[in-house]
């Protein structure tokens, strides 16, 4: 056992997206540009929600949380990823588990938050007269706290189980950040329990949140068919379109990553999907809400006019 312990690894090497020098430089510019847009866009949304009294309703408080989560998600992964475009991207095992924990923490938090936002839209559209009563300040705070606590608890499962694995010999993680599937494949012991636990927990939470979001939209669509005015229907679709677009972007990438098999081919596909949900989607979210939401656009205009 003593000889075995001496072979345990203390660090990993993240192999990144490509080994082509020219392509690395191009990708660095691309990722850096989107990361700046991500920070600027989401920071703007968070600032607007905090400072503008018009955006103090639950819908926009949830939106502010979503922007905050998106900003943190990219910041946990993208800076380290950009380092790997120029030098060998080394990360300690503890640092790897920490990055894994926060990426799953924020990913799960966003999934629950999208379900909460779907419920908020359901109440606003199907029960407008009771909206203020149902979605009061205390309810809003409780939903936000529950959202973050769910992400915090879920992420502990994979992080704790991964931290207990021994890693030896192979230290190259076939990804540009420490995701659970490529990391546990490097363990020098059977990982069947880890894979089953990961797939079960991820599948359960993803399915529950997706079904809750879907259920909200089923009720919304049913309500829309009862509206006789075309203007009223258009208003409802306009209210929900931004959130629905973000739901499609989120689940379209996250589900194909964490609910698929852990083969070599799937790991390559996961890297491509990961670029979307860590770089592209967090940048698009504030743009989608800004372009399609009149109150957010007006708030942005007021913010611009407030500068001397």
UniProtKB/TrEMBL annotation:
<dbReference type="Pfam" id="PF13853">
    <property type="entry name" value="7tm_4"/>
</dbReference>
<feature type="transmembrane region" description="Helical">
    <location>
        <begin position="62"/>
        <end position="87"/>
    </location>
</feature>
<keyword id="KW-0675">Receptor</keyword>
<feature type="transmembrane region" description="Helical">
    <location>
        <begin position="26"/>
        <end position="50"/>
    </location>
</feature>
<feature type="transmembrane region" description="Helical">
    <location>
        <begin position="237"/>
        <end position="260"/>
    </location>
</feature>
<keyword id="KW-0812">Transmembrane</keyword>
<feature type="transmembrane region" description="Helical">
    <location>
        <begin position="272"/>
        <end position="291"/>
    </location>
</feature>
<dbReference type="InterPro" id="IPR017452">
    <property type="entry name" value="GPCR_Rhodpsn_7TM"/>
</dbReference>
<dbReference type="GO" id="GO:0005886">
    <property type="term" value="C:plasma membrane"/>
</dbReference>
<feature type="transmembrane region" description="Helical">
    <location>
        <begin position="99"/>
        <end position="119"/>
    </location>
</feature>
<keyword id="KW-0472">Membrane</keyword>
<dbReference type="InterPro" id="IPR000725">
    <property type="entry name" value="Olfact_rcpt"/>
</dbReference>
<keyword id="KW-0552">Olfaction</keyword>
<keyword id="KW-0297">G-protein coupled receptor</keyword>
<feature type="transmembrane region" description="Helical">
    <location>
        <begin position="204"/>
        <end position="225"/>
    </location>
</feature>
<keyword id="KW-0716">Sensory transduction</keyword>
<dbReference type="GO" id="GO:0004930">
    <property type="term" value="F:G protein-coupled receptor activity"/>
</dbReference>
<feature type="domain" description="G-protein coupled receptors family 1 profile">
    <location>
        <begin position="41"/>
        <end position="289"/>
    </location>
</feature>
<keyword id="KW-0807">Transducer</keyword>
<dbReference type="InterPro" id="IPR000276">
    <property type="entry name" value="GPCR_Rhodpsn"/>
</dbReference>
<feature type="transmembrane region" description="Helical">
    <location>
        <begin position="140"/>
        <end position="157"/>
    </location>
</feature>
<keyword id="KW-1003">Cell membrane</keyword>
<dbReference type="GO" id="GO:0004984">
    <property type="term" value="F:olfactory receptor activity"/>
</dbReference>
<protein>
    <recommendedName>
        <fullName>Olfactory receptor</fullName>
    </recommendedName>
</protein>
<keyword id="KW-1133">Transmembrane helix</keyword>
<dbReference type="InterPro" id="IPR050516">
    <property type="entry name" value="Olfactory_GPCR"/>
</dbReference>
<comment type="similarity">
    <text>Belongs to the G-protein coupled receptor 1 family.</text>
</comment>
């Amino acid at each position: 056992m003593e000889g075995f312990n001496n072979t345990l690894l203390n660090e990993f090497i993240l192999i990144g997206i490509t080994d082509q020098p020219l392509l690395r430089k191009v990708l660095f510019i691309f990722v850096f540009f989107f990361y700046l847009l991500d920070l600027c866009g989401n920071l703007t949304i968070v600032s607007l929600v905090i400072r503008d009294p018009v955006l103090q309703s639950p819908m926009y408080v949830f939106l502010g949380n979503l922007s905050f989560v998106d900003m943190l998600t990219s910041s946990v992964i993208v800076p380290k990823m950009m380092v790997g475009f120029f030098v060998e991207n080394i990360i300690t095992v503890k640092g790897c588990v920490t990055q894994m924990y926060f990426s799953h923490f924020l990913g799960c938090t966003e999934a629950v938050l999208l379900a909460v936002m779907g419920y908020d839209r359901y109440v606003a559209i199907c029960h407008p007269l009771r909206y203020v009563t149902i979605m009061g300040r205390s309810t809003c705070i409780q939903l936000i706290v529950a959202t973050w606590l769910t992400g915090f608890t879920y992420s502990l499962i994979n992080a704790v189980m991964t931290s207990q694995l021994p890693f030896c010999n192979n230290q190259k993680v076939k990804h540009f950040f420490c995701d659970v599937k490529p990391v546990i494949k490097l363990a020098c012991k059977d990982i069947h329990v880890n894979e089953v636990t990961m797939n079960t927990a991820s599948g359960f939470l993803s399915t529950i949140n997706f079904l809750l979001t879907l259920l909200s939209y089923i009720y919304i669509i049913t309500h829309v068919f009862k509206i006789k005015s075309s203007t009223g229907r258009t208003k409802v679709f306009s209210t929900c379109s931004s959130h629905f677009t973000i739901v499609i972007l989120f689940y379209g990438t996250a589900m194909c990553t964490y609910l698929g098999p852990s083969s070599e081919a799937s790991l390559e596909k996961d890297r491509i999907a990961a670029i979307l949900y860590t770089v592209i989607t967090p940048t698009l979210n504030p743009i989608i809400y800004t372009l399609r939401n009149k109150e957010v656009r007006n708030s942005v205009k007021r913010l611009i006019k407030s500068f001397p």
